[in-house]
Amino acid sequence: MNAVLLLSGGLDSFTAGAMARADGYALYALTVRYGQVHAREVEAARSAAAALGVVRHVELDVNLAAFGGSALVGDGAIPKDRPLDGGGIPSTYVPARNTIFLSLALAFAEVVGAEAIVIGVNALDYSGYPDCRPEYLEAFERMASLATRAGVEGGQLRILAPLLRLTKADIISRGLALGLDYGLTHSCYDPQLDGQPCGTCDSCVLRARGFRAAGVPDPLLLR
Fold it and tell me: SS3 sequence, 101-125?
């Protein structure tokens, strides 16, 4: 079985890939350089791809910074120390990002004959992005069955989101049980010049909360 893994270099996509690999999938990784200001994650994605033993790793340039509309592509400052339970969609939301990424992964999946696309989205410990919700993923899967040759010919491509209903602590525990080295990953939205995490953006706060709840130290902070 083949699967296309959307691999960002963060701990979620790394863990989702490891879980799919444990389920017997051969992984084809796709990393998108979308104009993100935190491009350090692309380097982490290369390390994660090597650790997962992917069949092929494609890095694709799709410059969403040309549109703007998100702090992650340089349109405004990255929010720091934001209350994560305050509701609302944060300025780090990139308009239509997961739809674009999943569409690119869908094209890749058709070429390599993949039965699944693996995405590391989470609907519990996350920043409130609308394209991380289960109903969105279900809708995309339905669309894929209509939009592809495989779907027309009776095949079915599944959207696998194994982390969807897990807490960040659960995700970390699953990954450690699978032997993952989270020191290879990068989560920070606004890293320092030396690549170290800022510690106060949404992603850093969620990561720290997860490691604390899992009862293990974050290897990135031990260096």
Answer: HHHHHHHHHHHHCCCEEECCCCCCC
